[in-house]
Amino acid sequence: MIKFLILFICTIVIGSCSTENSQVNFAVGDAVQVIAEIINSDVTDSTLPAEAFSVQDNTQDIVSEETSIEDAVEDLETEITESADYPPGPYSLELFKVLPNMSFYDPWTLEWLELSSLYKHEEIKAFILVSSAGWCGPCIKEAAALIDVYEEYHEDGLEIIYTLGNTNQPLDVPFDTTIDKPLSAGYAADLGFMEGFQNIVQDLADKKLNYKMYADPNREFIEYTPGHAWPYSLLITTKDMGIRLVTEGYWSALMENKIIMALYNDTPDIPFGTE
Q: Is residue 81 located within the same domain as residue 108?
């Protein structure tokens, strides 16, 4: 009876381990040899040697190795995809460096804008990225001045990403705690601040706002420029996400000169020498 059970087990082991992997074939062969010795011996004990089951352990090791390889390949594919969607770093907010991929929140649509969506954009050649605050007087003046800039250059490929990192109170970040509660009073208060800021800008410019404003609940700029002044404005070309101009304080005429160069001239890629 014991020999019959051993033969039955042998059949199952061989059938379940049919693979081209040589390690498993050797393990199966070892198991068969052990079982054959048992059959030819005068075994009366129903306990099989541990070696007879070594094929199961080896198979588990092989499966684990294959899984690790698959995970590594998947990680590599992810890295390749990400590098294709955005230029590689290192990233910085310094002049002639590559802008990091940031995300800003549209409280009216409940959607996020990722700057990577502008990379190699077919229509947008360059964009102005501004970090501002509700309590900042120069920010309001710049926001009003940008209405004319947008009107002048938007059709030729200029976009403006205007972000608010503070409300009317210093250190009070809009939507940092209310973003997941769009029906709450806190969300309504933050939205009211955004709309109020827009109204002030429109009144100062005596024109309707023609570009979008976003909230910066994650304070994206802080990681790179923790002590920057407001407004903090950057001009970026979308072909390489390279920073062409950095200004702190009220917007200057230098910005318009750089806009013309970015839109109507073939500027070298950033980092330089990568064309």
A: no
